[in-house]
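User: What would this chain look like folded?
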Amino acid sequence: MGNKGLLTVIAVVLIGIFTILVIQMNEETPAEKISNSVTETIEEVGDEIDDATTNN
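Assistant: Here's the prediction, encoded as structure tokens.
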């Protein structure tokens, strides 16, 4: 395998590593998932309270 083939293999590996890093950066961590769930639950409870108090 010549220099050109070796450089091609290195380039493909680097692109693969970069792609994996980008995908992992976009995923939510477990802490972020819990935080989002808590926030959503609080908003839902607030909406239900608003609905209950404004329909009287």
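Residues 14-51 form one domain. If you want, I can go into more detail on any region.
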